[in-house]
Amino acid sequence: MIYNQQSIEEMINTQRLKLSVWDKISHYWIVILMLFGTGIFWFQSTKIYLNKGESFFLGRSFNIGLIFLATAILFSLLQYRRLKFIEKIICCTEKQFKQALFDTAKELSWIILTNSRNYCFAFHATRTYLNWGESITVIKTEKGILINSICDPTKTALFSFGWNRRNRNTFINCLELVIRDKQT
Q1: Which contiguous run of DSSP H or E holds residue 178?
Q2: Distance of alpha carbon 50 from alpha carbon 46, whole angstroms
Q3: What average pLDDT does this structure show over 51-58?
Q4: E strands in the chain
Q5: What DSSP character marks residue 98?
Q6: Residue 177: enclosing H or E segment and its boundaries?
Q7: Helix 55-82 vs helix 29-50: angle between axes, to the nearest 10 degrees?
Q8: Closest CA to 45 of 30, 67, 29
Q9: Which neighbouring-strand residues pair with 88?
Q10: What is the pTM (predicted TM-score) of this model?
Q11: How far is Cα 38 from Cα 107, in angstroms, rounded to an integer?
Q12: Confidence tier at 48 by pLDDT (50, 70, 90)
C-alpha cells in the first residue's frame, strides 16, 4: 500500500486504516460469503413457502439463514474493528522513531516497504496455512504514534495467531526502550 500525504492525514483524522477497493473486498470476504449463505437459505425458504411446502423445512431453512446473517454481522464488526489504529501517546524524535522501526524490523523480520519521515509501511511474512502475513502501518503524529497491524489485506485470513498484537507491542516496546536509552 502506497499512501500520499492526503491519505495519511485522512487516516490520522479518522484513526482508521484506509484500504483500496480490492483490499476491502478481500478484508471483508468472510462477510460476503456469509451474506451469500443467508441469501441462499432465504431463497429456499421463499421457494418452499410459495410452493406450499413442508413448514418444517420452511422454518429450518429460514433459521439457518438467520444464523448466517448473525455470523455475517459478527464478522463485519470484527473486521471493521481491525482497521482502527492503536494510539500511543509518546514523545519521540524522528531519529528515535526510525531506530525503533529498525530494531523491530530486525527482531520480527519485518520487510519495510515504505519508510518516510512520519510514516512506515512494513510486511511480516508469517506464511502459515491460515495466515499469509501481516501488514503493519505506523504513523508518527505530534502527540505520538498510530499503529495498526492486520492480516495481509490482499489475501483473506481470519486469524493472525497473535502476530498482529506482537507486531504492535514489539514496536511500542522498542520505541519506549529507545527513548529511555536516550534519556539516560
Answers
A1: helix 163-183
A2: 6
A3: 69
A4: 86-89, 110-115, 119-124, 134-140, 144-151
A5: H
A6: helix 163-183
A7: 160
A8: 67
A9: 145
A10: 0.81
A11: 44
A12: confident
C-alpha cell read off for 58 = 420452511
Phi, psi of 78 (to 5 degrees): -65, -45
Tell me the C-alpha distance between 149 and 160, whole Å.
10
Q: State the residue for C-alpha cell 497473535.
A: 162
Query: Cell digits for 108?
Result: 520480527
Give residue-wise pLDDT tens across range 75-88.
Answer: 999 999 999 999 99
Please give the grid coordinates belonging to residue 7.
491519505
Kindly report, residue by residue over 144-156, the tens digit of the pLDDT.
999 999 877 666 6
Find out if CATH 3.30.310 is the number for domain 12-17+85-183.
yes
Query: Please, which residues have CB within 8 angstroms of residue 45's CB and are 6 or more apart in sequence?
Result: 58, 61, 62, 65
Residue 88 is placed in which grid cell? 500511543
3: cell is 499512501
